[in-house]
Structure formats: C-alpha cells, structure tokens
Design a protein that fits this description.
Layout (H helix, E strand, L loop, with lengths): L12 E4 L2 E4 L7 H7 L3 E4 L7 H9 L3 E4 L14 H11 L7 E4 L5 H13 L4 H12 L5 H9 L3 E3 L18 E3 L2 H18 L12 E10 L2 E10 L3 H9 L5 E3 L6 E3 L22 H14 L2
Parallel strand pairs: 2-5, 3-4, 3-5, 6-7
Antiparallel strand pairs: 1-2, 8-9, 10-11
Helix pairs in contact: 4-5, 4-6
C-alpha cells in the first residue's frame, strides 16, 4: 500500500503540547490531520464549515467547537472578550486534546487567540507580539496586538482536566472559575471595573467648557454638518471684552446674563458638486476587492 502524502495546512505550527494552529483545512490536508489524531477543532470563521470538512470530522470522531468571529478590524470591530474567555476555556481542557485552532489563513484571528493563550503561559507581551508577527508578516494588525495587550483572561477549568502548561505567575493575573455562573459573575465584575476606570471628561482649574454651534447645509442628495467651538465667557468677562472692542454679545432680557455670540458655519451651496473629488471608473470595484483581500487574510 502506497504511503499517503502528508500536507500541513497553511501556516501550520504546534503552539504547545496538545494544541496546534493553522489555516483552513482542505481535502489535501486530511491525511496530515488524521496523523495528528485530533480530538477537536476550534473554528473561528463566521461562515458555515465546509461540508467535506464536516464529513471528515464525523468519520474521524473530531468534535468541532465553533466560535464565529469577524476578528479585530479598525475602527470598531473587536473580538468580544466574553468569546475569548470561552475559547481559552476550551483550549485549557485536556479532554479536547489534540486540538487544532484555525480561521481562514491562520494569521489574525488565530494569531490573536494564540497570543491570548500565551498570557495563560506567562509569556511577555513582546514575545506574544513577535510570534503574532511571525505569522501575520506585513499584514500584522495593530488592533490585534492592542487586544492582546489589554486582554485580561477569565477561564473556566475542570480539574483534573487542566493543561499542565497553564501558568499563574505571569505579567497578568488569571481568573479561574469552575461554572458558567461564576464565569458570568467575573465577566460582570470585570466590565464594572473597566467602566469605573475609564477616563471621564473633566475640566482642570482655569479651563472653560466649550459651547458648540452647529450649522447644517443641505445640498442636493448631500447633507453636511459643520461644527465650530466657541469658548464660553463668563458674564463679567464677556462684558469686559465687548467694551474693549472684543467680540459682539447679546444680553438675555429675561435673565440679564450675557450669551456669547455664535458665528454660524456656512457652506457654499452653489459649489457643492465641484468640491467633490472626481470618481474614477472602477474605484468601487477596487475598494470591494481590497476589502475581500483583507477578509481573506484572516
């Protein structure tokens, strides 16, 4: 009987004993995956798993953990931390070993999950980022690295089925719980702490709040909003400024207070169309292609 050719998935590597990483498996990778004797696959893409892969997993008794995520993309798309907590909980459970983590190309989503897994092993941030860049190359995303830096793990463990490489003496503290209820409790506590520590707007002594004047210019099929900031002047200061040739002011007859004069922002309705940069044929297609390439790189 001829021996099978073993072809690893794209970006394949061993993360630690019992855990592997790679790109999306195809039929040519099946003999290699079979040789790994996988028990589980951690699948990160939002798309349904390929029918051929589902059949392969069923034939080889491989359990699929599916965590659909779009990955970290600027400006406002992030992997939910609650999802990361549960992915790591799967990865520290030895009953799931050997396990393969994969997204599409094994770069960004897989790299971020592996980076957060390294936190559980006590790795430094520099080591995590160096490993991430090794696979992402020139496609490395600052948002992924920032996620790893700010992430604080909460994992659910099931003694005695806990990975021996799990460390507790790294740069970050690791919260370990044993039930889903405890996990939700810790998540709530973490969110509360983050909201309390978040910076809030404040004024230092001597600063003045700003009064905003808004002007909206409506053009054909176009609405633009311009905002200008006008410093608020206390009544005594405003009066003093006006008497010395400063900005004009109005007095509120009902209260006797002085309100700052606001200069509206005006737009040029006649030249609205000429101010737009010309759109070249094919620009839309190019933008769509770039977005698809970015998505494929995950």
């Amino acid at each position: 009987m001829a021996s099978e050719t073993l072809v690893p998935t794209f970006n394949f590597a061993m993360v630690c004993p019992g855990v592997y990483r790679g790109g999306y498996p195809t039929k040519k990778n099946y003999p290699f995956l079979r040789a790994l004797q996988l028990k589980s696959i951690l699948y990160l893409c939002p798309e349904e798993y390929a029918e051929s892969n589902l059949k392969f997993c069923e034939q080889n008794s491989i359990h699929i953990f599916r965590f659909p995520t779009e990955g970290n993309k600027e400006p406002f798309v992030d992997i939910p931390e609650s999802l990361m907590h549960r992915m790591l909980s799967v990865l520290v459970d030895t009953r799931n070993f050997p396990i393969l983590i994969h997204c599409n190309k094994g770069k960004h989503r897989t790299g971020t999950v592996v980076g957060c897994l390294r936190i559980l092993q006590g790795y430094s941030l520099l080591s995590m980022i160096a490993e991430y860049k090794q696979f992402a190359q020139e496609k490395a995303r600052p948002v992924d690295m920032l996620f790893m830096e700010l992430y604080h793990p909460i994992i659910k463990v099931h003694p005695p089925f806990v990975a021996p490489w799990l460390a507790t003496g790294g740069e970050k503290s690791i919260k370990m719980v044993q039930t889903e209820e405890e996990l939700v409790e810790e998540e709530t506590r973490q969110l509360l702490c983050e909201s309390l520590l978040a910076p809030t707007p404040y004024y230092t002594q001597g600063e003045q709040p700003m009064v905003y004047a808004t002007s909206v210019t409506n053009a054909v099929a176009t609405t633009t909003t311009a905002v200008t900031a006008v410093p608020y002047l206390p009544p005594s200061t405003a009066s003093h400024t006006a008497h010395h040739g400063g900005a004009a002011e109005e007095e509120d007859g009902a209260t006797g207070t002085v309100a700052p004069a606001v200069t509206p922002v005006t737009g040029n309705n006649n030249n609205t169309s000429s101010s737009k940069s010309p759109v070249k044929a094919g620009d839309g297609a190019s933008a769509k292609k770039k977005k698809k390439d970015d998505d494929d790189d995950d």
